[in-house]
Specification:
about 300 residues, 4-stranded antiparallel beta sheet, alpha+beta, two-stranded parallel ribbon, 14 helices, single chain
């Protein structure tokens, strides 16, 4: 068994569903140009951090000098869709423990495995909070392609995927990108988006319910409030209608300690939360970073939309 295959087998044993390797060369300049165009149009909304470290974002070498390879991994977090729509809607990944911590811990174990084989190992662990164009690297590593929903789509696992990267100075043989796959003429995600955030073929965060409920600070325009329906945290409309996701298996990570909570979010219960209640409930959840005030704002909008 080659070392690259051993690395992937180790990644799978840690709970990752996908693993691939790409070189650490800079990402194609055309993608950088498109990204800057996206930023200049203001489509990042209030996410100013996306406009920082642009060169670093597309150049793994700037994150870790001497880097040779990037090991890309992904976790399938798909859950059964609730039979009832009476509860508030929550992004599936928010029902799991904070994935940033989980992925970092597992990648650290993978790094220890590499170090046992090469004492001169240098590495850097990245999850989506790091300034790195992880979807572009995942495509290069053969994990999938970018769909019209702007997400990484794997032909077998769909796009309910959480990504992570291990940047290393080891010279590893890169995998080949998946070729010949695309969304073709499908536009289910575009048509399903309640706010038209995918309408012109480019993701506009300013209109995305996930952005509005998680990242956006302050008031939300009346037009967009009306379309938020019962979304308390995140939105998965574009994922739920995707044909690749319809046939994808559920994420099963219980034995790895990554288990989703079975909980319903009722409007009145959320509105009755004190700040301490919120802190306790979200102690190890991605919801915590959104904060008490914004979650309460979202719940009030949901109550208004329910009439």
């Amino acid at each position: 068994m080659g070392f690259e295959k051993e690395i992937k087998q180790k990644a799978f044993s840690l709970g990752f569903d996908l693993a691939g390797i790409t070189s650490a060369k800079d990402i194609d300049s055309g993608q950088i140009k498109e990204y800057k165009k996206w930023l200049n149009a203001g489509r990042n909304g209030q996410m100013d951090y996306l406009a920082g470290n642009i060169e670093q974002r597309f150049s793994p070498v700037s994150i870790l000098p001497g880097v040779k390879s990037v090991i890309c991994v992904a976790i399938n977090y798909k859950l059964p869709q609730p039979a009832s729509k009476n509860s508030l809607e929550i992004a599936s990944y928010a029902l799991y423990p904070d994935y940033h911590k989980f992925i970092k811990e597992k990648l650290r174990v993978l790094a220890d495995f590499l170090k046992s084989r090469d004492k001169n190992l240098k590495f850097k662990i990245c999850v989506d909070s790091s300034p790195l164009a992880e979807k572009a690297l995942a495509v290069r590593a053969g994990l999938g392609f970018i769909g019209k929903n702007s997400l990484l789509i794997n032909p077998k696992l769909g796009s309910f995927l959480l990504l992570g990267e291990l940047i290393t100075n080891l010279p590893l043989k890169p995998d080949k990108p998946i070729e010949g796959l695309s969304c073709e003429n499908c536009r289910k995600c575009i048509d399903a988006c309640p706010t038209g955030a995918l309408a012109d073929g480019q993701f506009d965060a300013r209109r995305c319910i996930s952005y509005l409920t998680i990242e956006h600070k302050g008031r939300i325009s009346p037009e967009l409030k009306d379309k938020m329906d019962s979304h308390l945290f995140g939105c998965e409309q574009c994922l739920m209608v995707c044909p690749y996701n319809e046939k994808a298996p559920l994420g099963k990570k219980q034995k790895y300690g990554f288990t989703a909570r079975k909980v319903k979010f009722e409007i009145d219960n959320v509105l009755n939360w004190s700040k301490a209640d919120f802190e306790n409930f979200t102690a190890n959840s991605p919801m915590k970073r959104t904060g008490f005030r914004r979650i309460r704002r979202n719940a009030l909008i949901c109550k208004r939309n329910r009439g």
